[in-house]
């Protein structure tokens, strides 16, 4: 049994979009709603789901960019949600994030070297004289040349920038890295480069990833376990082979079948879902997926299924089980 | 149904003035712009002669003064009606004076003290006779009763109706009746066809307010106005070129520079003289006012009682001034001045100060000028932090006391030279009680001489009244007290 | 929508209170004493003191403010120190003149601004574009009062084509119904007066409109240029619609939406510009009057005018937002949704 | 929905590749683009020229030397209202002062007030805007409400009121004009901070543990600085106009200093007898304002080729 | 042959130089065929489609070549003539359903505009046609939704509306520029399905532009692979996926993590990045990223050559060179 690095219990994040004249919330968006799971030390936990289902919000809660409305987060046994701002800061460096958009995640007015050095300086990890050396080391780690450290982000391509972002995250020697769609914005040929880099770094530094993506193939490539989200809820969690071979939740099944296969000879049976992803403001009652589900039971519309372990390590939230 | 209802132009006189009247209640206002309108609406007990400030009967047919000079009895015109139809009578006179006497008088009746300060009480003798008792003899009192401030008689009914403030709804006995007042635009008067005296010739009079001097000229030349006032020398040519006429009358005012006599360096008469000497007043006046102000040789304008040709100020002598100034060690002076044009100084205090700065520079004195708008300026004057200051005075009633008493009062906003001379004060007091005549005039000539010798003021100029009117206007005149009666004006 | 408007109107209250405090501080606490002006050349210190006492200027500042608010709530903004007329009356007798001038100016500015802006955008980099932009640039660079004077010199002083001052020939002054002479003269059916009012409006409105027109021109141009870059314009072209239709029906409608905001803001700035224009053209409006009152420290009037202008400004902005939501269906949606 | 990154990608790629060729500082890059814009260059040169005049007039007057043809403040009453001629290129005014010298001298004040006022409003506005935008919540509400209040009073009226309260003088004009344009900067800065704040790199800075101050100073402000520069340039032109307006209304500088608006205001009475006293100051104002507008527009275009205006 | 593109080149004149976004490409589309163009971002796919539509905006311009539609050269037509064809015989769906519809028009008006322009129908008929089309593309209760504004619809719905609009006049050729890229996976599947269905129903030819090889493999009949504005490979789908020839195509296929791939091997990587379009390398544009680069690859540009109906632009396949052997690898 591997060691638990992070444990998330009943985590929720609700955004108030409008208030009444008296300031009472009238329109509430439940971006993340009662989500619980754990991340083991050294694993890559993949999180997939369609746009707007709350993946980024979840990731941002973990790195303290959002404060949760509800729920607890334990990191190495410490309850982060119980800490005050200052105490919480000291955990900042343990949990880092890599962002989706390689163009927006680097400050265009700083050189790449400064960007990577910044976390080291802020967290006073090294004496000033050693910083440069470390920056060069990190650049090398992510496959950039040391002479590039004096350049500005706009002088780099998307893939290279993503590498800079990774180096910045690595600079503080984090234990957990939240990769929010770290390769989604990249061209296919570049995507492979970054993915491979992430895999290598994980091995080299013993990192743990929360790997957020909407591309199931990418998640599959990199993750050990995968969670599937839909409208703020976790629908299914399983080790990746188990999940891809034996998806239990109808949503997971549909998601998997929707991915085109690169082989014109092998046309597969497709599950085409009806309609669109509903708005997270007024999500369907009962099971969130019930409005589009092709295996809907009577009580799906009324009762919210809870996540249960149907086989070892395979958790599903569905009334079918 | 669009009918072109253009009224006949010859029925209407349009007079463009530079500012809007403050109001039309004679007790509540103090500005010349109001006076121009009020003179046409109201009559007083007395009025000034057309060409001087001699008093003539008006609502009072005749009057008697008691030997001790303390009681004035007025015999009133009979059958006079106010514009609102009520009768003018002795009671109306009493009401009008009483409202400006304690205890009724209020702080915002600016002329009450000046005009009626010496009045003890008013007695109605009968319907057409009224008696005014004074606390002390006052020679200017009769002249005061001809003023357009404070003195005109307002309908008592109107006063009651308008809560003692007829600023917006004036009712008098005058040749014109008030019709309406469009704020910032114009005031319209119409002829009083029941007028007790000589009725006005033209039916309507419109006072138009055009703040900008050059715009007023444009308006005249464009035919948008029949008469304008407040013009300055620079536009005369343009006006006459357009075929219009200029009306020029001597002005009852003085434009002066005052030395702060209360502190160094100008507590020393020599220093004052030296500075006065360095300024070429005639030249300055000629350039600044382009011939439309007289260089002042005395405080009183030439046409007033008490003026004497023999009076003269320190003569211009730059060389002598330079030596004296050097000797006095005077290198820097601090001037304060005002930015607005004033009736006695159309060029603004600022320009005047700057030109004097130019003269002083020539004799080695550097001036710093602080200029303020009029409101602030008055406060700065009160604070007394200056060496030189600029001011002026417009006569109210043609009495010499009205000019010269300024140098004897304690109020620093009036006596800005902070001049103190017991001898001078004594003479002023004497002048007030001396009955009009040669003896009295001699007192004021004497006062002028003292002032000139002490050089507390440098009198600069008497601004001429400069008006312009279109060639088809007849009978227009501008009285030296700054009012424009329109009863005799016609338009061809 | 209604709730939104209600919310905005509620927000007006603190703004107005704040504005009154700002003006109060400037005018009552820091400004010179109005008494010398009010009391005139014969004022003695004693009279001054009495007057100050009578007008409550010797009370502690907070009491003065409190009294002012008390009055304001009952619709009594006090009496002008100077003319001794109720402020409300003073303001409302002058207000229509300013509004009429500002409205005519904004109409002029909008029509010409949009026209030139659209032409410039559609014919980008052409001679029209360059000429239009040059006009716009000069428009924002010329001091409004200078322009006014130049106009007077040229059209009144030299050519005698147009009157230089006032709203109307006083002989023609229509019955005061709305205070807007254009409307009043129409009500009276007096075409002569209507024409005369227009003639009087031309120069001041032009001078006042110039700056706003320039701003609107520039905004229209850039908004249209941006709109023409949009994907849906490409879609429209891909449909095979003629270029004229693409511009008129697709680009214009979208491109003009943000202009509404600009026009609204300009209306506010026109009220400021009116201060100078009215001074130059002797226009009997509130702007020049307010300046005079500020200089005379006629506190009650200034306070009243500024509150009124602030009120109008905020209401115009609210109106603009409502119109905006009306023109742009997306806005309504986001309100309904969030 | 997924965002459209690909299209950005290749535009950026073009740029990226180019910058690799000649890595340059932000300013230099701005200058390069600016140089292409003829109008902006004209504006820039005019400004340099004006600054040069102002500086040389100022420095020489400090050293007690006179480089202008005449002492701009020297009044010779015998020479009032001389029409432009070979001795007095722009004629003389009512007090016999040389208009040409006064106009050149006036450059000093206009530029000084313009720049100083913008400095005040800019620094205060940026501070307030940054606080409001970054902190959000109550701080934001309070600051922005106060700004709204100031904005709902026409700025010229507010400036006049300030001047009436403070009195005449350059220093006071600077304060008045500076104060009234604070809200504009505060709003712009707040709006841009709100948008920059959403950028991932700001979030990234938070994740690595940067303090708020550091984030504002290091990550946010440098990224809106160019926008602020543009605003400030255009702001100077507004400030010059406002100064002129105050001067015109007689609230400008203390005499005898030459200030264009003041000169214009005082020339108003002479529009027919001495129109040149009115024409030249007006031209001087227009040219100065125009120059700053040209430069400001050019800068904006240089920063944002689509010249998007909010 | 419906459309024949001959030696088309399109350039963008920028201040810093000229970008040749499309460089001498030729291809044809037959009636009813689905031709896919794939390629990395910036390879010139969209520019190709805009060139065909005559919708290039300044500073872009067609530098040479012919675009023959039903044997008429579109490039030589006047704007008026082009407008007759656009939206009528050739129509287009764009990548961005969110921004490609006019936000202030109801969707029915947007579709009706097209119908009324080209089909000369009355308003009533046009509305009927519009609703019918909306129904065809699978919009539930089309009569009501027709009154919606674009923002009231989800991305998938909008893409359907776009499709309905494009098909409303029964075009012979539909150009779909990345119609699914911006959509969620499950919605992507819906739209692809829709396109397929529509092709069956209306029988039009489709030029499908995408960078997703998965989509190509499922939908297309024939494929063109573009790289840096050039066609580097062209073949029918089966042939392309079975025997990719160009090293770029090969690399592309291998670098995508496959859902049915169970190994934990690292992915294949194409090294480096796309060259700067302003400074294209001499020779083959892929040469500096190519694992099998020959010396002459950096010197001269290989020609597109046909080998058993499979076209490829690579020296490795020159019969007379040593690279020819690579084919048998
Ligand atoms: N700060 C915020 N305020 C209000 N709503 C928000 C905020 N951040 C996110 N949301 C909403 O929360 C929901 C979840 O957003 P989130 O960004 O977490 O989705 P996601 O799964 O990451 O989607 P994507 O694939 O588009 O990145 C969305 O509906 C989004 O609109
Ligand atoms: N308006 C433009 N100005 C300058 N260059 C342009 C313009 N539009 C396209 N280009 C250039 O043309 C080339 C091809 O662009 P195109 O849009 O066709 O690529 P694409 O293959 O469609 O890419 P994507 O997958 O990102 O849509 C790119 O290098 C791009 O930089
Ligand atoms: Mg996300
Ligand atoms: Mg494209």
Automatic annotation (TrEMBL), chain A:
Keywords recorded for this protein, A-Z: ATP-binding, Nucleotide-binding, Transport
Organism per entry: Desulfosporosinus fructosivorans
Coiled coil (residue ranges): none
PANTHER family per the UniProt record, alphabetical: ABC TRANSPORTER, ATP-BINDING PROTEIN, TRANSPORT ATP-BINDING PROTEIN
Name listed for the protein in its UniProt record: ATP-binding cassette domain-containing protein
Lineage: Bacteria, Bacillati, Bacillota, Clostridia, Eubacteriales
The keyword Nucleotide-binding appears for this protein: yes
PROSITE patterns: ABC_TRANSPORTER_1 (PS00211), ABC_TRANSPORTER_2 (PS50893)
Pfam families per the UniProt record, alphabetical: ABC_tran, oligo_HPY
UniProtKB/TrEMBL annotation, chain C:
Membrane-traversing stretches: 9-30, 101-122, 134-155, 201-220, 255-276, 305-327
GO biological process assignments: transmembrane transport
Subcellular location: Cell membrane
Presence of keyword Glycoprotein: no
Coiled coil (residue ranges): none
CC annotations in GO: plasma membrane
Alphabetic keyword roster: Cell membrane, Membrane, Transmembrane, Transmembrane helix, Transport
InterPro entries: BPD_transp_1_N (IPR045621), MetI-like (IPR000515), MetI-like_sf (IPR035906)
A Pfam family matched in the record: BPD_transp_1_N
Gene3D superfamilies per record: MetI-like
Ranges of residues in domain ABC transmembrane type-1: 95-324
Primary location group: membrane
Recorded topology in the membrane: Multi-pass membrane protein
Family, as annotated: Belongs to the binding-protein-dependent transport system permease family.
Name of this chain's protein: ABC transporter permease
Native species: Desulfosporosinus fructosivorans
TrEMBL record, chain D:
GO biological process: transmembrane transport
Keyword annotations of the record: Cell membrane, Membrane, Transmembrane, Transmembrane helix, Transport
Main subcellular location: membrane
Intracellular or extracellular location(s): Cell membrane
One Gene Ontology cellular component annotation held by this UniProt entry: plasma membrane
Record has Cell membrane as a keyword: yes
Domain ABC transmembrane type-1 span(s) in chain numbering: 107-296
Membrane-crossing segments per the record: 39-59, 109-134, 146-167, 224-250, 270-296
Domain of life assignment: Bacteria
Membrane topology according to the record: Multi-pass membrane protein
Family assignment from sequence similarity: Belongs to the binding-protein-dependent transport system permease family.
Record PANTHER family: D,D-DIPEPTIDE TRANSPORT SYSTEM PERMEASE PROTEIN DDPC-RELATED, OLIGOPEPTIDE TRANSPORT SYSTEM PERMEASE PROTEIN APPC
Record protein name field: ABC transporter permease
Native organism: Desulfosporosinus fructosivorans
TrEMBL record, chain E:
A single Gene Ontology CC term: plasma membrane
MF terms (GO), sorted A to Z: ATP binding; ATP hydrolysis activity
Keywords: ATP-binding, Cell membrane, Membrane, Nucleotide-binding, Transport
Top-rank taxon, per record: Bacteria
Keyword presence, ATP-binding: yes
GO biological processes: peptide transport
InterPro entries documented for this protein: AAA+_ATPase, ABC_Ni/Peptide_Import, ABC_transporter-like_ATP-bd, Oligopep_ABC_C, P-loop_NTPase
Domain ABC transporter: 3-253
Compartments where located: Cell membrane
Membrane-related topology note: Peripheral membrane protein
UniProt KW ATP-binding keyword: yes
Similarity-based family: Belongs to the ABC transporter superfamily.
NCBIfam families reported for this sequence: oligo_HPY (TIGR01727)
Protein's UniProt name: ABC transporter ATP-binding protein
Naturally occurring in which organism (per UniProt): Desulfosporosinus fructosivorans
The organism's taxonomic lineage, starting at the top: Bacteria, Bacillati, Bacillota, Clostridia, Eubacteriales
């Amino acid at each position: 049994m591997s060691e638990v690095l992070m444990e998330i219990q009943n985590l929720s994040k609700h955004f108030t979009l409008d208030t009444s004249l008296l300031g009472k919330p009238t329109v509430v968006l439940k971006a993340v709603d009662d989500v619980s799971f754990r991340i083991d030390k050294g694993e890559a936990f993949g999180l997939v789901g369609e746009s707007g289902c709350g993946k980024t919000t979840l990731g941002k809660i973990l790195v303290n960019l959002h404060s949760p409305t509800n729920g607890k987060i334990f990191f190495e046994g410490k309850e982060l949600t119980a800490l005050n701002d200052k105490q919480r800061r000291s955990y900042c460096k343990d949990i880092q994030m890599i962002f989706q958009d390689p163009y927006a995640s680097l400050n265009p007015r700083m050189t790449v070297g400064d960007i990577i050095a910044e976390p080291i300086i802020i967290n006073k990890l090294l004496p000033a004289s050693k910083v440069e050396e470390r920056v060069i080391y990190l650049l090398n780690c992510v496959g950039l040349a040391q002479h590039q450290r004096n350049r500005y982000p706009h002088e780099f391509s998307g893939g290279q920038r993503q590498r800079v972002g990774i180096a910045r995250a690595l600079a503080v020697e984090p234990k957990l890295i939240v990769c929010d769609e770290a390769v989604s914005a990249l061209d296919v040929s570049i995507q492979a480069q970054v993915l491979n880099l992430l895999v290598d770094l994980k091995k080299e530094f013993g990192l743990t990833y929360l790997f957020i993506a909407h591309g199931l193939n990418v998640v599959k490539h990199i993750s050990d376990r995968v969670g599937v989200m839909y409208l703020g809820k976790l629908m299914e969690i399983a080790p990746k082979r188990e999940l891809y071979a034996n998806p239990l939740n109808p949503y997971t099944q549909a998601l998997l079948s929707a991915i085109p296969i690169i082989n014109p000879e092998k046309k597969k049976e497709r599950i085409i879902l009806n309609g669109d992803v509903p708005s997270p403001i007024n999500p369907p009652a009962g099971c969130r997926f019930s409005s589009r589900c092709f295996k809907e039971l009577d009580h799906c519309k009324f009762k919210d299924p809870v996540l249960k372990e149907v086989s070892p390590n395979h958790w599903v939230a569905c009334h079918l089980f | 149904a669009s009918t072109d209802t253009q009224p006949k132009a010859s029925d209407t006189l349009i007079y463009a003035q530079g500012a809007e009247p403050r109001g039309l209640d004679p007790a509540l206002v103090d500005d010349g712009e109001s006076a121009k309108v009020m003179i046409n609406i109201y009559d007083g007990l007395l009025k000034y002669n057309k060409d001087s400030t001699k008093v003539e009967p008006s609502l009072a047919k005749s009057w008697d003064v008691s030997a001790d000079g303390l009681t004035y009895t007025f015999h009133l015109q009979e059958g006079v009606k106010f514009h609102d139809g009520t009768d003018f009578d002795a009671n109306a006179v009493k009401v009008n004076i009483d409202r400006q006497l304690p205890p009724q008088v209020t702080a915002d009746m600016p002329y009450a003290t000046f005009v009626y300060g010496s009045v003890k009480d008013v007695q109605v003798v009968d319907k057409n006779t009224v008696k005014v008792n004074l606390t002390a003899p006052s020679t200017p009192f009769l002249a005061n009763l001809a003023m357009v401030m404070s003195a005109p008689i307002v309908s008592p009914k109107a006063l009651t109706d308008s809560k003692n403030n007829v600023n917006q709804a004036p009712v008098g006995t005058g040749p014109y009746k008030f019709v309406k007042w469009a704020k910032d635009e114009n005031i319209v008067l119409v002829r009083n066809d029941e007028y007790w005296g000589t009725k006005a010739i033209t039916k309507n009079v419109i006072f138009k307010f055009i703040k900008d001097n050059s715009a007023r000229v444009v308006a005249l030349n464009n035919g948008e106005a029949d008469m304008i006032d407040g013009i300055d020398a620079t536009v005369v040519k343009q006006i006459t070129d357009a075929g219009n006429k200029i009306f020029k009358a001597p002005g009852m005012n003085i434009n002066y520079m005052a030395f702060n006599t209360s502190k160094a360096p100008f507590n020393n008469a020599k220093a004052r003289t030296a500075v006065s000497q360095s300024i070429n007043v005639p030249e300055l006046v000629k350039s600044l006012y382009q011939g439309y102000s007289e260089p002042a040789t005395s405080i009183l304008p030439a046409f007033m009682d008490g003026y004497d040709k023999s009076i003269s100020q320190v003569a211009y002598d730059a060389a002598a001034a330079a030596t004296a100034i050097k000797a006095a060690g005077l290198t820097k002076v601090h001037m304060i001045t005002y930015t607005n044009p004033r009736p006695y100084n159309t060029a603004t205090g600022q320009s005047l100060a700057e030109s004097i700065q130019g003269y002083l520079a020539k004799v080695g004195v550097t001036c710093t000028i602080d200029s303020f708008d009029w409101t602030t300026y008055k406060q700065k004057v009160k604070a007394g932090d200056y060496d030189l200051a600029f001011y002026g005075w417009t006569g109210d009633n043609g009495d010499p006391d009205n000019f010269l008493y300024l140098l004897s009062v304690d109020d620093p906003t009036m006596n800005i030279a902070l001049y103190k001379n017991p001898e001078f004060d004594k003479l002023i007091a004497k002048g007030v009680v001396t009955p009009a005549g040669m003896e009295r005039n001699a007192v004021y000539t004497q006062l002028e001489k003292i002032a000139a010798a002490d050089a507390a003021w440098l009198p600069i100029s008497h601004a001429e009244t400069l008006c312009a009117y279109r060639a088809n206007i007849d009978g227009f005149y501008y009285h030296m007290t700054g009012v424009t009666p329109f009863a005799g004006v016609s338009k061809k | 929508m209604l709730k939104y408007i209600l919310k905005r109107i509620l927000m007006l209250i603190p703004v107005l209170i704040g504005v009154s405090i700002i003006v109060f501080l400037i005018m009552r606490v820091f400004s010179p004493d109005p008494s010398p002006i009010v009391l005139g050349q014969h004022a003695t210190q004693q009279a001054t003191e009495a007057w100050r006492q009578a007008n409550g200027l010797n009370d502690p500042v907070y009491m003065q403010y409190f009294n002012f608010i008390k009055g304001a709530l009952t619709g009594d903004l006090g009496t002008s120190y100077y003319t001794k007329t109720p402020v409300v009356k003073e303001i409302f007798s002058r207000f229509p003149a300013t509004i009429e001038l500002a409205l005519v100016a904004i109409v002029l500015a909008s029509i010409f601004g949009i026209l030139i802006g659209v032409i410039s955008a559609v014919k980008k980099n052409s001679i029209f574009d360059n000429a239009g932009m040059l006009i716009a640039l000069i428009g924002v660079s010329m001091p409004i009062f200078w322009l006014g004077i130049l106009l007077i010199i040229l059209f009144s002083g030299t050519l005698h084509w147009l009157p230089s001052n006032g709203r109307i020939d006083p002989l023609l002054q229509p019955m005061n119904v709305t205070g807007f002479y254009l409307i009043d003269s129409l009500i009276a059916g007096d075409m002569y007066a209507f024409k005369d009012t227009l003639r009087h409006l031309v120069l001041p409105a032009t001078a006042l409109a110039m700056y706003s027109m320039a701003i609107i021109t520039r905004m229209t141009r850039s908004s249209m240029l941006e709109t023409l870059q949009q994907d849906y314009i490409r879609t429209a072209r891909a449909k095979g619609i003629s270029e004229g239709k693409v511009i008129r029906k697709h680009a214009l409608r979208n491109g003009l939406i943000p202009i509404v905001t600009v026009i609204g803001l300009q209306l506010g700035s026109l009220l400021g510009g009116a201060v100078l224009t009215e001074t130059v053209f002797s226009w009997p409006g509130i702007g020049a009057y307010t300046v005079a009152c500020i200089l005379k420290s006629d506190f009650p009037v200034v306070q009243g005018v500024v509150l009124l202008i602030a009120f109008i400004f905020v209401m115009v902005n609210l109106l603009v937002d409502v119109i905006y939501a009306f023109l742009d269906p997306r806005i309504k949606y986001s309100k309904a949704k969030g | 929905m997924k965002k459209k990154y690909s299209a950005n990608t290749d535009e950026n790629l073009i740029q990226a590749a180019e910058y690799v060729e000649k890595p340059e500082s932000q300013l230099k890059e701005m200058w390069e683009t600016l140089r292409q814009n003829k109008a902006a260059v004209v504006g820039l040169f005019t400004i340099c020229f004006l600054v040069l005049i102002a500086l040389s007039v100022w420095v020489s007057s400090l050293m007690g030397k006179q480089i202008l043809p005449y002492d701009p403040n020297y009044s010779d009453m015998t020479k009032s209202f001389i029409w432009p001629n070979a001795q007095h290129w722009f004629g003389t005014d009512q007090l016999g002062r040389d208009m040409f010298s006064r106009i050149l001298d006036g450059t000093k004040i206009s530029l000084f007030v313009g720049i100083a006022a913008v400095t005040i409003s800019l620094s205060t506005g940026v501070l307030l805007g940054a606080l409001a935008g970054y902190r959000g919540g109550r701080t934001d509400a309070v600051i922005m409400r106060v700004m709204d209040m100031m904005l709902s009073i026409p700025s010229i009226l507010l400036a006049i009121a300030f001047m009436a309260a403070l009195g005449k003088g350059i220093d006071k004009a600077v304060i008045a004009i500076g104060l009234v344009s604070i809200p504009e900067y505060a709003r712009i800065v707040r709006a841009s901070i709100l948008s920059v704040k959403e950028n991932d790199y700001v979030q990234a800075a938070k994740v690595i543990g940067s303090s708020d101050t550091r984030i504002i100073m290091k990550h946010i402000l440098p990224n809106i600085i160019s926008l602020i520069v543009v605003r400030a340039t255009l702001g100077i032109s507004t400030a010059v106009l406002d100064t002129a307006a105050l001067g015109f209304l007689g609230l400008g500088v203390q005499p005898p200093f030459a200030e264009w608006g003041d000169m214009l205001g005082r020339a108003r009475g002479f529009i027919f007898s001495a129109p040149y006293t009115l024409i030249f100051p007006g031209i001087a104002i227009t040219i100065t304002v125009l120059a700053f507008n040209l430069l400001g527009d050019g800068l904006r275009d240089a920063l944002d080729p689509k010249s998007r205006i909010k | 042959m419906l459309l024949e593109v001959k030696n088309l080149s399109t350039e963008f004149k920028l201040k810093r130089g000229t970008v040749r976004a499309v460089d001498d490409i030729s291809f044809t589309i037959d009636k009813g065929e689905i031709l896919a163009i794939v390629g990395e971002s910036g390879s010139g796919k969209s520019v190709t489609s805009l060139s065909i539509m005559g919708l290039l905006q300044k500073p872009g311009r067609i530098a040479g070549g012919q675009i023959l539609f039903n044997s008429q050269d579109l490039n030589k037509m006047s704007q008026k003539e082009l407008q007759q064809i656009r939206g009528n015989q050739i129509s287009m769906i764009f990548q961005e359903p969110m921004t490609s519809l006019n936000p202030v028009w109801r969707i029915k008006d947007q579709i009706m505009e097209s119908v009324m322009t080209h089909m000369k129908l009355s308003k009533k008929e046009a509305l009927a046609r519009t609703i019918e089309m909306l129904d065809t593309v699978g919009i539930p209760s089309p009569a009501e939704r027709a009154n919606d504004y674009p923002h009231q619809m989800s991305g998938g719905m909008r893409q359907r509306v776009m499709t309905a609009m494009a098909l409303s006049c029964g075009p012979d050729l539909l150009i779909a520029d990345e119609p699914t890229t911006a959509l969620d996976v499950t919605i992507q599947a819906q739209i692809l399905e829709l396109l397929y269905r529509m092709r069956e129903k209306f029988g039009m030819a489709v030029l499908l532009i995408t960078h997703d090889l998965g989509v190509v493999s499922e939908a297309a009949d024939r494929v063109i692979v573009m790289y840096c504005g050039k066609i580097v490979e062209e073949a029918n789908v089966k042939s392309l996926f079975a025997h990719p020839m160009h090293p770029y195509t090969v690399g592309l296929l291998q670098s995508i993590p496959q859902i049915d791939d169970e190994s934990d091997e690292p992915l294949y990587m194409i090294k480096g990045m796309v060259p700067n379009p302003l400074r294209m390398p001499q020779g083959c544009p892929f040469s500096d990223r190519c694992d099998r680069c020959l010396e002459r690859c950096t010197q001269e540009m290989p020609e597109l050559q046909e080998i058993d109906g499979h076209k490829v632009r690579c020296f490795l396949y020159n019969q007379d060179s040593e690279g020819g052997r690579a084919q048998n690898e």
